[in-house]
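ARCHIVE CARD
Drawer: 12
Card no.: 0347
Subject: one protein chain, sequence and derived structure
Cross-reference: see card 0346
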Amino acid sequence: MAVAVSQPTAPPKQEGRRSSRSRSERWIAWIWIGPAVLFAAIFLVYPVISTVIASFQNSDSTKFVGFKNFQEVFTNPGLLEVLRNNLLWLVLATAGTVFLGLIIAVLVDRVRIESFAKSTIFIPMALSMTAAAVIWRFVYAYAAPGQPQIGILNAIWTTFGGQPQGFTADPKNDILNNILLMVAYVWMWTGFCMVILSAALKSIPTEILEAARVDGASELSIFFRITMPMISPTIAVVATTMLINILKIFDIVYVMTGGDFGTNVVAVEFYQEFFNFTNFGVGSALAVLLLVAIIPIMIFNIRRFRVQEAQR
């Protein structure tokens, strides 16, 4: 005759202890992350929501006007110039920093004074954007003919008999004015790109490069067929980081020209609409456009990081 054996069960008291322990652990977790969540809600989520709402209201946020502010952004000639300047920054400044950073990383990897060269090129990163803008403002400084030229470029130019030039201050050459401002940005951020790309170059196995050289491949062929494909994920990360940084460029433009002479960008225009013209509707619309432009780049970066983590 078979005898049924009952399985031992946990005492009710033990189950109660576990449930009370799990509840206490959840409370402890919320106590730790609570301040961070509250901070993000007050200083991140609430400003974003209020800015989006204000972008659909009039200049003093007293009346709903729909998409009128966005229509103003894309039809006003002055604001269209601002968008054009931001596009120029995105293309030229990103290409300049990434390209120079890559070239310098490849070149200094072959010299004995690599550490010294990298440190020298990286020094501008120790400065704030405002300090870098002040330095380059003095580089481009203009004084009337016959006056002492404190700007380096005009001092050199007049030494060889030329007339002083109003660098970054010529209303007829707004494209050149923007490019000269980008030079200051590239000077500052090339060191950052160089350091990141140099680390990627050093991660390439030397056996692969040596095998290519033994097979008779030229250095140029090795660079484009081996080096570039192997560090392309790092190049993409550096480029997207520069894009995000450039989209919200403010300090250099504001300090060097204040947005005058055809050099205004979205972040400076947003500041001026808010605090100089008290036009909260258009200012908020510009901020929303900036946010919308940055989000896809951030998503791209996050997905690439996840792919790299999965490959590891």
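Annotation on reverse: The chain has a mean pLDDT of 87. Residues 221 and 227 are 9 Å apart (CA to CA).
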